Amino acid sequence: MASLFSDNEQPPTNSNSISTVLVGKKKSLSASTGDGESYARWRSEKQQRIYSAKLIQALKQVRLSSSSSASTSSPTAQKRGKAVREAADRALAVSARGRTLWSRAILANRIKLKFRKQKRPRQTVVPAVTTVVTTGASSSRGRKPRVSVVGLNKKSLPTVNRKVRSLGRLVPGCKKESVPVILEEATDYIQALEMQVRAMNSLVELLSGYSGSAPPPI
Amino acid sequence: MSSRRSRSSRQTGASMISEDQINDLVLQLHRLLPELGNNHRRSGKVSASKVLQETCTYIRNLNKEVDDLSERLSQLLESTDSAQAALIRSLLM
């Protein structure tokens, strides 16, 4: 089965769990030096496994709740889609383990409590498994020539500021933060979203494979 | 990279945001973006506003993708009948 996650993994058998299917791929990207920590966090296999397990659990709950309350609420397609999205976001935020602003904002919005603003731990606790698997060939993101940033002069600061503000509105929970915070949250958020997309893609593929009568071709 | 975080002086309370820091962050962001038109661009400079613009677009695209995927997922979860649901459930346990 052409799972999006696997390129050199053997095809999953029925005895494997879905999470193994979802996290088959050994990423051949090497960690860039600047953002090694967050990069490794969202690309490691362990993280993907954690997220896919949580996602499946959350989706099961969505399924159960939607089927039980089918008579009371009008199960429009949009509502169900939104419920799925919220469950996925919640699973994603939980996988972040509370270290980022956006994840706390997502969880706070769901529970509708006011999280007390926690200082992010400055002495970063390096997780036990942050080894990014590098297998030989690097992708286009791996080896880049040294680039420098232009356009951060005083004259264009209002423009840059405006763009950073609009970026902050896109990332949950960062509407009123300062510029470096927004940039940092955005990098983490993008990587988390990418992982979410990959996981959901694989899940969709898996489920659509099952919705046909035949088992997926090996 | 704890060095990046320790360089930030927000801990002291003063909002002394160095240019260097912002540069770093923008570079980091640029590395994450999909390089659609940048493959032939060998010059070592990126424009900050362009990076930010592309970041906004990219996040919007990712969000839309997640929305579409969750839509599909919800339909798939609805449409699988009980036999397959039992099969999936047995796989998930």
From TrEMBL, chain A:
Gene3D superfamilies: Helix-loop-helix DNA-binding domain (4.10.280.10). It is found in: Nucleus. GO terms for molecular function: protein dimerization activity; transcription cis-regulatory region binding. Keywords: Nucleus, Transcription, Transcription regulation. Coiled coil: none annotated. Residues 1-20 have a biased composition (Polar residues). The keyword Transcription applies. It comes from the Eukaryota. This is BHLH domain-containing protein. It comes from Brassica oleracea var. oleracea. GO terms for biological process: regulation of DNA-templated transcription. Pfam families: IBH1_N.
TrEMBL record, chain B:
InterPro entries: bHLH_dom, HLH_DNA-bd_sf, PRE. Its main location: nucleus. Residues 6-62 form the BHLH domain. Keywords: Coiled coil, Growth regulation, Nucleus, Transcription, Transcription regulation. Residues 52-86 form a coiled coil. One of its GO terms (cellular component) is nucleus. This is BHLH domain-containing protein.
